[in-house]
Amino acid sequence: MNTLQGTFALVTGASKGLGRAIAIELAKKGFHLLLVARSENDLAKLSEELRTNYGVTVAFYPIDLSENTSAGKVSEWVEKNDFPVSILVNNAGYGLWGKFDELSLTDQINMCHLNMDVLVALNYMLIPRLSKSNKAYILNVSSTAAYQAVPTLAIYSATKSFVLSFTRAIRYELKNSPIAVSCLSPGPIDTGFAKRAGLDAFSKMAEKFNMKPEEVAKIALKGLFSKKSEIIPGVTNWISVYANRILPKAFIEKMAAGIYKT
């Protein structure tokens, strides 16, 4: 990994939560950072913190990644500045809770666009640049929700299943390239995700199982640099994923429906 120090890592959704924690961990390891998120103020504060505390170079690009042209703009920014990117972390994404036919169709399609389309586009656009490195890494962030259908989180869990499947496929396609591809599938993280998704009632129960973003970030990077295909932080989350593989789907869906019921 020493050969990568001094190169850049691009992190989406970097201003808060898990993305912020991953950016900090990368800075600790000597990587320069390219930070992408909506909030310019948050990005500016984090950039200054990383420069001051870890002596790394940090550039940031404030943009709403849910916009149709966002991935192209990020790629153009990287190309224009000729940043030597060796790590891509696709962390940006969000969830919506509620019955499929009762939630806004526009909001659900926008979620699909951010969780899947933007992730795919950034992978596609940045693989040529990553390939220029002797070693490079892609970390696509999924969720433990990817391993089963989740009633009232139907679209979110489906998008994360897509991320998992897509990541495994391109990992195989790139196996003879300098790029190692991994999928991170965390469970509940103390990031405010449940509140944003509208899961206020569930957020209280989730607190019992929440992992800190800093803890997940450390596990994520350890798994990434070890070239693991799937990274599932936490014993409880690993057990739940294993159970989803061996128990009947109907049973799992009934359990999930009970947990996330409206």
TrEMBL record:
InterPro entries: NAD(P)-bd_dom_sf, Sc_DH/Rdtase_CS, SDR_fam. It holds the Pfam family adh_short. Keywords: Oxidoreductase. It comes from the Bacteria. Gene3D superfamilies: NAD(P)-binding Rossmann-like Domain. Belongs to the short-chain dehydrogenases/reductases (SDR) family. This is SDR family oxidoreductase.
